[in-house]
Amino acid sequence: MRRSLIAVACVLCATPALALDMPARRAGLWELKMSFDNGGMPGQTMRQCIDVETDRLMQSNFGGSPRQTCTKQEVAREGKTVVVDSVCRFAGVTTTSHAVITGSFDSAYTMKVTTWRDGAPPAPGLSVDGANHLTIAATWLGPCAAGQRAGDMMMPNGRTVNVRDMRSLRAMRRPQ
Fold it and tell me: What is the pLDDT of residue 124?
């Protein structure tokens, strides 16, 4: 369970910069294979069932506007390659990231992300002081399966969580 949560956290930390001006992914079922190049964590595979709205939610940072939490967000397009550099602060942790994305948001893409964390407690399998390297290979599998709803994330541990439910829970926890 803990490894699945770390995998989700890695994906979510990698995605705030993507909400900037990235093309929407094709609606349907996507498989994301994550490999952690530091060798401290085994690879993880998760699936996401998306539509336009939930893709936008998954590519946002779930914690307010990126402009409120990020001091730097730069996107550069070079042909079919997108390079994203960002510096964001969440829950007292500053994360600097550099992502290179290649491929097609209609069928398959690869995202190579290097992050540096400052102010974070040690996490199993992640470098404390150095760079952490994550590769996400995403493949469109087709329409979502029967019984799946847009926003479902099928985790490596067999559990399913929905991005809409995560937003609702977070909103309920915020002080009024």
Answer: 64
Kindly report the number of other CB atoms within 10 A of residue 113's CB atom: 24
Tell me if 42 sits within 8 A of 139, measured CB to CB.
Answer: no
Higher-pLDDT residue of 18 and 29 is 29
What is this structure's pTM? 0.76
The tokens for 60 are 């946002």
Provide φ and ψ at 35, rounded to 5°: -125, 135
Q: What is the 3-state secondary structure (H, E, C) of the chain?
A: CHHHHHHHHHHHHHCHHHHCCCCCCCCEEEEEEEEECCCCCCCEEEEEEECHHHHHHHCCCCCCCHHHHEEEEEEEEECCEEEEEEEEEECCEEEEEEEEEEEECCCEEEEEEEEEEECCCCCCCCCCCCCEEEEEEEEEEECCCCCCCCCEEECCCCCEEEHHHHHHHHHHHCCC
- At 112-154, the pLDDT tens digits run 999 888 876 666 666 666 688 899 999 999 999 999 999 999 9
pLDDT tens sequence across 53-80 = 998 887 764 444 555 578 888 888 888 8
Q: In which residue are the tokens 């307010």 written?
A: 64
